[in-house]
Structures are given as structure tokens and as C-alpha cells.
Amino acid sequence: MKSGFVPVVGRPNVGKSSLVNHIVGSKVAIISRRPQTTRNVIRGVAEGPGYQMVLLDTPGVHKPRNELGNRLNAMVGRTLTDADAVIFVIDATMSVGPGDRLIATRLHDAEADVVVAVNKVDKASKGDTVTRLTEAAQWPFPDIYPVSAATGHGISGLVEGVVSRLTDGPAFYPPGVDTDQPEEMIVGEIIREKFLDRLRDELPHSLVVRVSEIDQRESGLIDIVADVIVERDSQRGIVLGKGGSVLKTAGTEARTELETVLGDRVNLRLKVLVEKDWQSHPPLLDRLGFRER
Ligand SMILES: Nc1nc2c(ncn2[C@@H]2O[C@H](COP(=O)(O)OP(=O)(O)OP(=O)(O)O)[C@@H](O)[C@H]2O)c(=O)[nH]1
Ligand SMILES: [Mg+2]
Fold first, then answer.
1. Would the N or C end of the chain have less CB density within 10 A of its end CB?
2. What pLDDT is attached to residue 293?
């Protein structure tokens, strides 16, 4: 069979995680309308007749503003080392900018076998899509696919293009496995997702979720305890909301989705904590799981 590792890279918010979920056929990565949603390399396994590809959803590459940003960009760079092909995603609704060009240069320098996905064509005008395709054609990557992770338009062609670049090899995961994330990570990400779209400005970047307990009682009920961590005292109040309303709504939404994913009733306890400037502190970043290498 054909198999291989395929990083999905691009600027923040272009739809990398949405695309990975669509190709895998289940939600392995959280998505939000906020840039910099993804903060880890997430493996999603996609299978079809005669192939298995391990997609690596990556954090959006951006100009780093702190130690977390440096670590995220380095994380993306490392995925290129073992890549059999790379899906480079750009956004059809936005002009190609310096961020995209920088990524294109890095991919070219890494001698990656790149296919370009021009995503969100459902939202872009025909004219915008044509302009984007023309801009993408300036790069030395031969295959460009207009796609929509929202409607599925063009995805099968993109998958075929990627599969044609894979070589004969073993399956890396048993059939039916769609991600390799530990349970704590899946749970933490679902909780984080429920807060992201609710918070304004810089706050989504400051928020991290640390799951400290997942325990199933004999009755089947699953007790989950998690810390919702922010960087400043002022952010604590925003995450709680008036009379605890934000925490409550996000918590309820998270619990509902967790019950579906875990298949049992969930008792979710969330605590909001302040870890001062965690994004800039190497030891805190280590502790929160953002390893340097
Ligand atoms: N209309 C439309 N919206 C899309 C499409 N793909 C993604 N989006 C939206 O774009 C936003 C960002 O999507 P994500 O999948 O989180 O983007 P990402 O590239 O993983 O973002 P980061 O993890 O922050 O780098 C979300 O609001 C998605 O719903 C698409 O094909 N069409
Ligand atoms: Mg993402």
C-alpha cells in the first residue's frame, strides 16, 4: 500500500484543521474563527483504497511575539523533516501576503514535495479565487487545488494528488484509528474550543487548558477536572463572565461534546487560574506541554 506523513502547513486561520478533519472524516482537531487555534502537531489518519496517509495538522506559521510563538514555528519546521508530501494551505478570500511567501520559501528550501490547497473557495468570489490561483502559480509548486473544507469541494482531487506522491510502505496505524492524541489532550482541546470564539482580542491566545483528572466511576459517570489558565488577573474575570456566565455556558457546551465523544455521562469541574505571562516563560511552557523539541 501507499503510505506516508503529510504535514498541513500555512498561515494561521487559513483552514488547516478544518481540512484535516474533512479528509480524516472526523473531528481530530479543534477549529475556531480565531487565528492560532492549533498549538500542537496533531496527527490525523486518513485511509482509502490502497493508501494510508498520516496528516500532521500544524500551528499556523506567524511572526513570533513570544517564546510560545518560537516554539510553535519550530514545531512546524520539524514536521518537514520526515514529510513525504506537504499540503500548503492558503486562503482564497485573502490576498497572498508576506506570511504566505515566507512559508513558500521555507518549503522550497526544505525541498518539500508541495501541493497547494487554495481553501475557502465557497466563500471567495470567482474573481478572487482566480487571482489566488494565479498568485499561487508563481511558486515552484506544480499542483494547485481550489478546495473548500466547508463544503468538501475539490477535496477528493487534492487527496488523489497527495496519494500519488506517497511511496509503497506499511500502514502506520491499525485500521479505524483516526488520531494518536492522548485522552487528556482531546478533552483539554474540546474545553479550550468552547472558550475561543467567546473571547475577544488577545485573550484566546492567553488561554490554555490543563486536564488534571479523568476518572470513571462504577456507575459509568466520568469525573473530569481541568484548569483553565490565563495570563493576567484581569483575564480571569473575562473567562468567568458576569456572574460566572461565560464559564457556565462554555462548560455546558464542553460537557455535552465530551459526553458524545467519551460515550458516557460527564461531570466536568473547571477552575480558572492565573499563571503570569505563561507564554514567555520556558519552565511554564514545558509544564504546559509546549516542549522545545
Ligand atoms: N467558509 C469557509 N470557512 C472555512 C473553511 N475552512 C475553514 N473555515 C473557517 O476558517 C476559520 C479557521 O479555521 P481553522 O481550521 O481553525 O484554521 P487553521 O488554519 O487550522 O487555524 P490555526 O490553527 O489558528 O492556524 C474557522 O472559522 C473555520 O470555520 C472553508 O473552506 N470555507
Ligand atoms: Mg488549526
1. C
2. 60
Domain spanning 183-287, CATH class: alpha beta
Domains of the chain, by residue range, sit at 2-168, 183-287
Going by DSSP bridges, is the β-strand pair 2-10/167-168 parallel, antiparallel, or unpaired?
A: antiparallel
The whole-model pTM stands at 0.95
* Mean pLDDT value across residues 243-263: 96
CATH topology of domain 2-168: Rossmann fold (3.40.50)
Ligand nearest to the CA of 22: 1
- Taking CA atoms only, the protein residue closest to ligand 1 atom 16 is 31
Q: How far is the CA of 5 from the centre of ligand 2 (A)?
A: 17
Count CB neighbours of 262 within 10 A.
Answer: 17
At 21, list the grid cell: 478533519
Does 183-287 match 2-168 at the fold level? no
Across the chain, mean pLDDT equals: 95
Q: Which atom of ligand 1 is nearest to the CA of 36?
A: 24
Label residue 289 by pLDDT band (50, 70, 90): confident
